[in-house]
Design goal:
alpha/beta; ten-stranded mixed sheet; four-stranded mixed sheet; 14 strands; 24% strand; globular; nucleotide-binding; ATP-binding; transferase; Ribokinase-like; Tagatose/fructose_Pkinase
């Protein structure tokens, strides 16, 4: 069992368009509605590949009911914490070359009582599981140190390994609590360290800064340049071939799900993560890949890193 917490989940509506032209009327060529949020996507990817997973999330309004129903239909066990306001709705516009324009709502403001209930539900769900993933931005009203508090509480209760995938001040605070794994993308790696991340060498340096600040292992997703895995005795760079680029929404979440699902560590875990991430970008909208979508033969893991190799700006 792998538990995920998504403090600010969403319903994600995706529109596929032939060309995005601001100020004009455009007819969509495809549309879909998916459960959204980093932790939610991690659970969806795990369930699609036959792994037991439980998603903890706040739930309010008809949107919240619809979100919980969609997750249950995908085989995700759901723990909902009632809130007064409705869950947010996000919109993604996807062009044929894979370019995504996202319109994300801020989300409902959670009261202190609702935040406490969410934390309590997460700790209760974590009993006896293998991984707990704390993922996504925090909703309005949540304390900046929510993830840090949860890492400390889960660690004190003897819970399994803890992964954090967030950004900004909540991510910085969580680092100090010592999570087992963090998964920044290129932009988040640069933001968290205040360093340029334009080459693999700079990405490695930035990852080690995060480790010095408390993270035990860093899994940095680098978009078309693959991913970097940095731990105590591990420095690996992996790449994957993508057959068809449809949407990058949720690809990083699928990559993290693949890593958490792997029953190994090091190069094997990184290869599994990359197979899941590559399969995700071939899905429409924020669809998560299943067993038959994975192509592990398209993954290459390098034990030596070219520090001067440039990293694409596109995550």
């Amino acid at each position: 069992m792998i538990v995920t917490l998504t403090p600010n989940p969403s319903l994600d509506r995706t529109l596929e368009v032939p060309d995005l032209r601001p100020g004009s009327v455009i007819r969509a060529t495809g549309t879909r509605l998916d459960p959204g949020g980093k932790g939610v996507n991690i659970s969806r990817a795990l369930a699609a590949n036959g792994h037991r997973t439980m998603a903890v999330l706040p739930c309010g309004g008809t949107e919240g009911e619809q979100l919980a129903g969609l997750l249950a239909s995908e085989g995700v066990e759901v723990v909902t914490v009632p809130i007064a306001d409705s869950v947010r709705v996000n919109i993604s516009v996807v062009e044929p070359d894979g370019t995504v324009t996202k319109l994300n709502a801020a989300g409902p403001r959670l009261s202190a009582t609702e935040i406490d209930a969410l934390a309590t539900a997460t700790c209760a769900a974590a009993n006896g599981v293998r991984w707990v993933a704390l993922a996504g931005n925090l909703p309005p009203g949540a304390p900046v140190d929510l993830y840090a508090h949860l890492v400390s509480c889960l660690r004190g209760s003897g819970a399994p390994r803890i992964a954090v995938d967030s950004s900004g001040a909540p991510f910085a605070a969580a680092l100090r609590a010592g999570p087992d794994l963090v998964k920044p993308n290129r932009g988040e790696l640069a933001e968290a360290t205040g360093m340029p991340v334009t080459t693999l060498g700079e990405a490695l340096t930035a990852a080690n800064v995060l480790r010095a600040r408390g993270a035990r292992t860093v899994l940095a997703s680098l978009g078309p340049d693959g991913a970097l895995l940095v731990g105590d005795a591990t420095v690996l760079h992996g790449e994957q071939r993508v057959a068809e680029l449809r949407s990058s929404v949720g690809a990083g979440d699928a990559l993290l799900a693949g890593y958490l699902a792997a029953l190994s560590e090091g190069s094997a875990a990184l290869a599994e993560a990359l197979a899941w991430g590559a399969a995700a970008v071939s899905q429409p909208g924020s669809g998560m890949p299943g067993l038959w979508d994975l192509d592990r033969s398209a993954v290459v893991v390098h034990t030596h890193i070219d520090p001067d190799r440039l990293i694409s700006e596109r995550n």
